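Side project, low priority. Logging it here so it doesn't get lost.
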Amino acid sequence: MPLSVKKWQKKACKMRKFEIRQDTCYAYSIEIIKKWESSRPKKYKLFGRNYIGYGHLLTKKDTISILNEYQADSLLKNDFDKALKISKMDTLRLPNEKKMLIAMFVFNCGIGTLKRSKLLKLIKYGANDSIIERQYLGCIFANGKKIRKMKLRRIDEFKLWKL
């Protein structure tokens, strides 16, 4: 039975709201990463690894040595899309804004860190939001060292979970 015009309009309106919300979450995620990563046009070393742009990890295959702002932005979105794809596979039935948060965590810390963390286990077992928040905000270490600004970054990122 075909949908009536009014029902079709309502359905289309709901779909548009979902798409706008999804786009907004994506844009917010990108802005948060840009805010905390800051773009570097030339490659730099951090914890013994080479990076460029907004935290793009250079591999042996990469031949990039210098980037303009557009290229850095494009590389960031490409890297974030990969992290988002990983987060969709790893997290069960979560709303998109929560998957975006997991993708930001993967982008920042790596998939290995996520898989070893208690965070993923808590999410999979349906822990309440306050426990997940405490665990997420506790992820402020890099190579065993506490990073001062990481707490502020995690607070910014966790706003997605609360949408």
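Brief comment: Residues 5-158 form a domain with the Lysozyme fold (CATH 1.10.530.40).
Revisit when time allows.
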